[in-house]
Prior knowledge:
The protein is an alpha/beta fold. It has helices spanning 17-33, 48-56, 69-74, 112-121, 136-147, 160-168, 179-188, 235-249, 252-260, 270-290, and strands spanning 6-10, 37-41, 63-68, 88-98, 100-104, 127-130, 153-156, 174-177, 191-196, 222-230, 264-265. The strands form two sheets. A six-stranded mixed β-sheet has the order 2-1-3-10-4-11. The protein has a five-stranded mixed β-sheet with strand order 7-6-8-5-9, sandwiched between helices. Strand 6, helix 5 and strand 7 form a beta-alpha-beta unit. The mean pLDDT is 93.
Amino acid sequence: FPSRPVELIVPAPPGGGTDIMARILTEAIEPFLGQKMVVINKPGGSGTIGLNLIAQAKPDGYTLGCLWNSPLTMVPNVLKVNFTIDDYIYITTVAKGPMIFCVLTEFPAKTAQGFFDHARKNPGKLTYAGDGVGNIVHFSGERVFHAMNVKLRLVPYGGAGESIKALLGGHVDVYGGTVPPALPHIKAGTVRPLFITIKDRIEALPEVVGISDLGHPGVETFIWRGILGPKGIPSDRVAIIDKAVQQATQTQKVKDHLNKLGEMVWVASGKQFEEQVRTETTAMAAVAKQLGLAPK
C-alpha cells in the first residue's frame, strides 16, 4: 500500500484556501507516498456533501479527505447533517492560520481599539462580509465581537474572494476571511487590517495585532487544514499516510507556500487532531447557542 493513486476529496470548489493547500500537498507527497495523490473537488452544502462522501467511502485508505474546520465543527451546530464526528479516522493536521478582519484605509478608525470604540458608539450599524452563517468567519468574528462588547451585522457572501470585493466596492464596512484575498490590497495600501483571530502575530503581517494584544486570548479561533478518512482504515495504512503527509509538510516548498498564504505548518497526531475536533465542536455549539442558531 498504496499500489494505485490515492483520492483526496476536498469539500470545496477549486481556488479556495483548502483546495490550494491540498494541491500543494499532493505535489509534495508523491516521493514519500510512492504514488500520486489526486484532488477531487466535491463542493456544496457548506462542505457537508464532501464530508458525507468521505464517511461513506470504502475504508481502504484510497479515499481520504482534506478539509478545514467549518463543515465538521461549526456547520453541524447550525444545520442538520447526516454525519457525526465519530464517522471518521483523524490522520493528521497539515496547517493552521488566522481569520483577518479589515477595513478600507479611509475608515475613520485607524487601529483595532479605535475600531471597537467606533463600533460601540454605533451598535448594530456596521456590517462585515463573511462566508455564510455558521461558518468560520461568522463564528470567529462573533467570539471577538462578544468579548469586545460590540455588535456588527453579518452580510453573507459565497467566499473570501466575494467578500473582499464587497469591501472594495463599499458594500460592507469590514472584510472577514482568510489572509490571501486581502493581502495584495493591504500591501497596496487600499485596505487596513484590524486584527487576526489567533493569539499571536504572523510572519506575513507582523504589524497586525492578535487577540492576545486585545486582551482576550481565550477566544482564539484558527482555521486548520487536516487529513481524515472513513472510520475503519487499517492502522498500518493510516501510519503510512500519516508519515508521508508529515514528510511532505516539512519540505521547504510547502513551508514557503503556507507562509505566502499567511498560514503555518501545524502537524498534530491523529489523537491530537481528534481532540481538537471534539473540543472545538463543543466551543462552537456554545457560540451557535449564543447567536440563537442551534438547529432544532
